[in-house]
Write a structure and sequence with these properties.
elongated; 23 helices; alpha+beta; 7-stranded mixed sheet; two-stranded antiparallel ribbon; about 10% strand
Length: about 425
């Protein structure tokens, strides 16, 4: 006797998505295709956790079904890939993934699988864990029935993460990272044999491309508490397998906590990465960035973070002038400064970093190049030098008003030149 979950599913889904599921069902019926709700949404519905990522698998042709749905509802086709038999629909504020049921064969460990059309049973059998390998049938003969060939529902009740077959981690070692992500997110345990095989197959991570591992790291960083996952990966020595100098623990957890309070969601992922690599040397970070194909902009951010870290002793000097703090930090990205505010041990350095971020970097002379010309400074490099000089004086509180700036420009000449830093006085 199969569980019938259609009422539960339609009540669980937001009203608009429930409507769309009903349309998918009707269109699939008209086309003589069998559609199924699959994957995370069934898991989360049974756990009573919100999840609005609708995945639909079709025994037939997902692209044709998507086109029909787009014709008959307000859904819009966002993308389709005939090579993979997949389509993405946008409906109101939701995204719906449709894929043709497929069979996968792994020709080589870690490589992407060879894919051919298959049945729903074959599609469920290619998946990562039992709790992700359930489906609800939308076609009339078994409408609403739960397909659960690997007893995922029971594992949900037992709170277990279990792979479907002993080769699973060898076929796709990203499942090592995924298993720990689900374990920590859901507060589950790894089933005993799954845990043994996971530990045994850690070296299979070498078979995975840098891009795919980076993607999994990004998914970890999108979790509510990524530090819990990193901690668990650390204990299993997975983290060190990715880079021998990486470590998690209480300190990283504290830093991640602070990061969540300080920056917006779109900066959080980059900031987490800076905090994760904080214990590394520059050369190890460069190697990390190369291995995991970290984009150039983010790599610069990581290296900036470590270069500022090297200046922490200097930044801890209580006699440091504002203009000195400014010239030390003005070429670094704000987020790399923020990372040091979070991760540095020195309270004084943190104070100076904060001072730069909140105040100093926004300071500008009142006088413009044009105003300087009117004061008699010749057009050319002298204007720039004078502006720099004024900025220095302003940072060090020696010129507050426009009049004070003008007086400085007119009165200051060669003596300032001796100070010898980034700032140049006007040439008389
Ligand atoms: N999947 C898999 N092996 C992977 C990636 C994905 O078997 N390496 C399968 C799982 O069945 C998963 C589904 O593809 O449920 C969709 O993948 P994804 O969107 O990553 O997972 P969800 O469970 O939908 O979502 P989330 O992890 O965000 O909860």
């Amino acid at each position: 006797m199969h569980d019938n979950l259609i009422q539960q599913a339609l009540q669980y889904l937001p009203h608009q998505l429930a409507e769309l599921v009903t349309s998918v069902k009707s269109q699939a019926d008209c086309l003589g295709q069998k559609a199924y709700l699959v994957g995370g949404i069934i898991r989360d519905m049974l756990l009573d956790c919100p999840n609005f990522d609708l995945d639909i698998v079709v025994e037939g042709d997902a692209i044709i079904l998507a086109q029909e749905i787009a014709k008959t509802t307000e859904a819009k086709t966002l993308a389709s890939h005939s090579r993979f038999g997949t389509a993405k629909l946008g409906y109101k504020s939701f995204i719906i993934d449709l894929s043709t049921a497929r069979r996968e064969i792994y020709p080589k460990q870690g490589a992407l699988p060879l894919v051919t059309p298959g049945t729903i049973e074959e599609d469920l059998a290619r998946r990562d864990f039992t709790i992700n390998s359930m489906a609800i049938c939308l076609s009339p003969c078994h409408y609403g029935e739960l397909l659960d060939p690997f007893d995922g529902k029971e594992d949900l009740e037992q709170r277990l993460i279990r792979i479907l077959h002993p080769q699973s981690f060898q076929d796709d070692a990203t499942r090592i990272l995924r298993a720990i992500r689900y374990e920590q997110r859901l507060d589950f345990r790894l089933e005993k044999e799954t845990s043994r095989l996971l530990k045994q197959d850690i070296p299979m991570l070498d078979t995975i491309s840098g891009d795919r591992i980076r993607h999994e790291l990004e998914l970890i960083f999108r979790e509510k508490y990524p530090e819990k996952i990193l901690n668990s990966l650390d204990k299993l020595n997975v983290l060190q397998y990715l880079n021998p100098h990486l470590k998690a623990g209480r300190r990283l957890a504290n830093n991640f906590n602070k990061a969540r309070l300080l920056v917006s969601a779109n900066q959080l992922l980059s900031l987490y990465l800076c905090l994760l690599i904080y214990p590394l040397e520059e050369k190890d970070t460069e190697q990390f960035a190369r291995r995991f194909k970290i984009p150039a902009k983010q790599t610069r951010l990581l290296l900036d973070t470590l270069r500022i870290k090297k200046q922490i002793t200097l930044l801890s000097d209580p006699c440091m002038k504002n203009s000195e703090i400014y010239s030390l930090l003005c070429n670094y990205t704000p987020l790399s400064i923020q990372a040091n505010i979070i991760a540095s041990n020195s309270e004084r350095a943190r104070g100076n970093l904060n001072l730069y971020l909140r105040k100093l970097r926004h300071i500008k002379p009142v006088l413009t190049g044009e105003a300087l010309q009117k004061l008699g400074i010749p057009i050319g490099p002298e204007i720039g030098k004078t502006l720099q000089f004024l900025l220095k004086e302003k940072l060090d509180d020696k010129a507050k008003t426009r009049q004070q700036e003008e007086r400085l420009v007119l009165s200051t000449a060669k003596p300032c030149r001796k100070e010898g830093n980034n700032f140049h006085p006007p040439v008389a």
